[in-house]
Amino acid sequence: MLNPYLPYPVRIDDIEIATEDKSLKTFKFVFLNPGDEEKFAYNAGQFAELSVPGVGEIPIGIASSPVEKGFVKFTVFRAGVVTSHLHNMKVGDIMGLRGPLGNWYPWDLLEGKNILIVGGGFAFTTLRSSIIYMLDPENRSRFGNIDVVYGARTPGMLLYKDELVAWEKRDDINMHLTIDAPADGWEYNVGFTPPVTEQKAPQGDDATYAIVCGPPIMIKFTLPVLEKLGYAHDHIIMSLENRMKCGFGMCGRCGIGKELVCKDGPVFTLDQINKTPKEY
Amino acid sequence: MTFVKIDKKQWAQGLATLQKSYRLFGPSKEKDYYNYKALDVGEQPDFGFSNTRLSPKAILFPQSETIIEFSLDENAADHHIMKSIETDSSPRAILGIRPCDAKAVRLVNLNFDTPEYQDPYWVKALDATTFVGLACDDPKSTCFCTSTGCGPYNEEGLDLLLIEEDAQYLAKVLTDKGRAFAEAAGWNTATDGEADIDARKATAEAKITASVSMENLKNQDLMDLHGASFWEDIAFACINCGTCTFTCPTCWCFDLQDEVHGKTGKRMKNWDSCMFPLFTLHTTGHNPRGTKTQRLRQRFMHKLKYFVDKYDTGIMCVGCGRCVSQCPVNIDIRRVCDLMNNYKTDEAACTVQD
């Protein structure tokens, strides 16, 4: 019997400061035991429990992409007990990784469709995973147009900047980067994510799906924009967060009605979310 | 051999024999209440109880259970590598478990043994356990098991059902596990008990007068019930003490916590409660169930609506009455269940009046 509580042992292979305020770091992990990486096979949109022995566990979206092999990456905001401890750990340290957990963006359903991605701040991790996945030469032809609206407070707060710049130069993805206020050397959009979405995003239709991840305030103002653009509620895909412990549907705390965010989610359509109590 | 009779004079001898191959748990008097405990060699279970203060769920799902251990000593070859604890899976038996508590184990099993994931600590404990039920001839006024799909002679989840008579126990053998247990004890005097049991069952059931109605729960709209006006009223007196969740035989929520002593550490599974604010508190300070009304609603909605919708096996309550009798402010799940079952939205209520 597989033990879903038992993490795979991993080594921290690299730590990168991800934002100018140093509140986010990207951790690259490699599995200690051969074979564990195959067992950890995941889809873009899933999460895992980062497990620090003696400190605890924290559920974090997987930032690396299924098409990237040999490692897994997580970008972590320093916020509580476990994440603060993690930020003080060093390359070479041993810890655990439990997962992959939860559902993922509905890639089968999205095949042949146009994709609009709307992200804000540091909720861009599983969106990065998704973009890398869709842009992979094996996969790109399976999707229609790809539009990405991504906003942060300042240029230095955007995650994965080198990749964003590289995507800007490609012609098979339309990037709409934005920051809150003008900054020296910034050559893209200026303004909050919702109005930029309104100006730049394609119209919604049957063949177009929006994937939205961001802080609550961004979500609040982006959803009416998407509705106005013609996106139906079952064409708006979101990823929820809640306090979690087990991550596989047993410990009971992350429930929103009869759905558990950890196991039945974290990915839900707006249509599904509207049918559950707002307890997230 | 469906029924065997056990002369009370041979009871102690049978248990002594059983203790060579089983760990026995049974009810025992503590102050003015009863609880289940591991019986010492030669110790008898005390069947003079109506029901125990806590359910025996802790025998399968301990209030605190170490599941993982690790070393933090950088000189150790395997430091920071987490290892599963081998929990005790030797045969054990719960003597005198009431039918309500045995059914509750089956309900909790729906959570811990799923097609996708199995909790290995629970599954091992359940496999190792023989459930020796004790039929309830003298139910309490707070009991309402007959209306929850259970009953004082309910056999679900039991391996053996004992019926106490003056000089003997009548044991109904229900499973292979139960048969093996009876054989190990040397209880092999076959008898005919069906007619006897039917009459006593009917008498016991007739003594249970409290009930809940649940026939409309499945068809009630989840969001309507969630938004119902009665939650504030029910929660008014609630002090969020968590007694209901800890005494409930079907409550399964838990927490995972690490503890470190020197250079060694362990990870534990501890009972948790939806009544506590920390259960759902986000690191940001946001709490999706930040008020006591929201937390109380979660408990009742989970048991009486979410569970009903998710598993389609009735409510997540066996009618043991523990939360009813032990709630310090007299919140009564029977009343809540009826309110939910009979709830009509204001709009619907008006339509009916018209």
**Assembly form of the protein:** heterodimer
Please state the second-level CATH architecture of the largest domain in chain A.
3-Layer(aba) Sandwich
* Nearest-integer average pLDDT of chain B: 94
Judged by helices, strands and strand pairing, the structural class of chain B is alpha/beta
Query: What is the CATH fold-level name of the largest domain in chain A?
Result: Rossmann fold
Query: How many H/I helical runs of chain A?
Result: 8
Q: What is the C-alpha radius of gyration of chain A, as a whole number of Å?
A: 18 Å
Strand order of the largest sheet of chain A: 10-9-8-7-11-12-15
Q: Provide the domain count of chain B.
A: 2
Major sheet attributes of chain B = 7 strands, mixed
SS elements, strand count of chain B = 11
Q: Biggest interface: chains and residue counts?
A: A-B, 45 and 52 residues
CATH class of the largest domain in chain A: Alpha Beta
How would you characterize this protein structure?
- The complex is a heterodimer of chains A (280) and B (354).
- Chain A has 280 residues and is an alpha/beta fold.
- Chain A folds into two domains: 8-101, Beta Barrel (Elongation Factor Tu (Ef-tu), domain 3), CATH 2.40.30; 107-239, Rossmann fold (3-Layer(aba) Sandwich), CATH 3.40.50.80.
- Chain A contains eight helices and 15 strands.
- Chain A has helices spanning 36-39, 81-87, 107-110, 125-135, 161-168, 193-200, 216-228, 270-274; strands at residues 8-17, 24-31, 47-52, 56-61, 72-77, 94-101, 114-120, 146-152, 174-179, 189-190, 208-213, 236-239, 255-256, 259-260, 267-269.
- In chain A, helix 6 packs parallel to helix 7.
- The radius of gyration of chain A is 18 Å and the shape is globular.
- Chain B is of the alpha/beta class.
- Chain B has two domains: 3-56 and 87-207, no CATH class; 217-257 and 272-346, no CATH class.
- The radius of gyration of chain B is 22 Å and the shape is globular.
- The N and C termini of chain B lie far apart (62 Å).
- The interface between A and B is large, with 45 and 52 residues.
